[in-house]
Write a structure and sequence with these properties.
Pfam families: BTB_2
Protein name: BTB/POZ domain-containing protein KCTD17
Number of helices: 7
GO cellular component, one term: Cul3-RING ubiquitin ligase complex
GO molecular function: cullin family protein binding
Helix content: 40-55%
Organism: Pterocles gutturalis
Number of domains: 2
Number of strands: 8
Length: about 210
């Protein structure tokens, strides 16, 4: 009898050890049914952002979410954009397929209330918008005619932003005090920058001679 009791005790202990790990595993892993697509992840991953909808969902805090026949939480959202959301919670990086719109991921990030991801996507979108709205500068050219002795004065009196592009000697047009007055054609230019609102701005540097 004593041997039988010991065997029963050993069996009982063995059974207890076999049953415990699955119960721990069930508590660790979470199934999510997002728009008909099932995702499997851990509670630790979902709770990386404590204020997120997903963290509150798996902790059962004031959220009465339905479950499907497998016990997965039902979430009526687009599963296409949920992959980047879940991967961001896993490793903290935003990784998108080339055909995936960042605006779509942003919409989901805002729904799930994942603050760091929202900021990353908004920064990306602002950077793209800035790049698209940058317009190459336009060049405005002028041709000025002057005499040789007037060149120095012209350089010193040129307004900001104007640059000398070319100087052309056109010879002497008339004789002044028995001296030939050489005349030049000065080609000058200025850059005008167009902003996103359509207004033009000028650089603030002084006039200079282009090399």
């Amino acid at each position: 009898m004593e041997g039988g009791d010991e065997m029963q005790g050993a069996l009982g202990l063995r059974c207890t050890r076999d049953i415990t790990p699955p119960s721990v595993s069930q508590a660790k892993w979470v199934r999510l049914n997002v728009g008909g697509t099932v995702f499997l992840t851990t509670r630790q991953t979902l709770c990386r952002e404590q204020k997120s909808f997903l963290c509150h969902l798996c902790q059962g805090e004031e959220l009465q979410s339905d479950r499907d026949e497998t016990g997965a939480y039902l979430i009526d959202r687009d599963p296409t954009y949920f992959g980047p959301i879940l991967n961001f919670l896993r490793h903290g990086k935003l990784v998108l397929d080339k055909d995936m719109a960042e605006e779509g991921v942003l919409e989901e990030a805002e729904f799930y209330n994942i603050g760091p991801l929202i900021r990353i996507i908004k920064d990306r979108l602002e950077e793209k918008h800035y790049t698209v709205t940058q317009v190459p500068p336009k060049h405005v050219y002028r041709v000025l005619q002057c005499q040789e002795e007037e060149l120095t004065q012209m350089v010193s009196t040129m307004s900001d932003g104007w640059c000398f592009d070319q100087l052309v000697n056109i010879g002497s047009s008339y004789n002044y005090r028995n001296e030939d007055q050489t005349e030049f054609l000065c080609v000058v230019s200025k850059e005008l920058y167009s902003s996103s609102n359509g207004l033009s701005s000028e650089p603030s540097h002084k006039a200079k001679v282009r090399p």
